[in-house]
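Lab notebook: predicted structure, single chain.

Context: the supervisor wants predicted structures on file for every construct in the current expression panel, including those that have not yet been purified. This is the next one on the list. No modifications to the sequence; it matches the entry in the shared construct table.
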Amino acid sequence: MNQPALQDSPFLSAFRGSFTSALRWHQLDALWVVLRARAGDGWYLYAVGELPPAAPADAAAVERFIDEIDALLRSEHDEDFCGIVYADDLHDPAFIKIYDPNNLGVVCGYSDNPPLPGWVVSKLPPIDLPAAQPAPANRRRWWRRLFG
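Prediction complete. Output recorded below exactly as produced.
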C-alpha cells in the first residue's frame, strides 16, 4: 500500500477523530463490559508495530485480549486512575486506543508528535500506523540533504 492510500484510509481518519478517556478504572471496567457483550461483532485487534491483522478476531480472542490487556494495564500502570485507554464512544465504541504504560510520552494534552498507542481495537480494518505517520521535519530535511 502506498503512502497516499494510507493517508486516505477510513481507519486513519477514525484514528485521528475525537476520543474520550476512560479516566477512572471503573470507566475502563464499564468499557470492557460493553466490548465483551459485543466480542463477536468483528473487532480487529492490532498491536501497533506488528503487521495489521487481515481479519477480525473471533469472540474468544477478543475476550482473551480484554483479560490480558486489563491485567497488563493494572500491573504496569500503578496509578489510582486509568487515563491511558481512549474510545470514540465509551458507551458504544467502534474504535479504542490503548497506550502502553511504558511508552506514554505526551498522551493527553497537546504534542506535535504524540506517541502511537500500543494497541488498537477497531471495527475498521487497520493500516500500518507507523508507516502512516509523517517523519519529523528535521529528519526529512536531513534525508533530503543527504540524498537530494
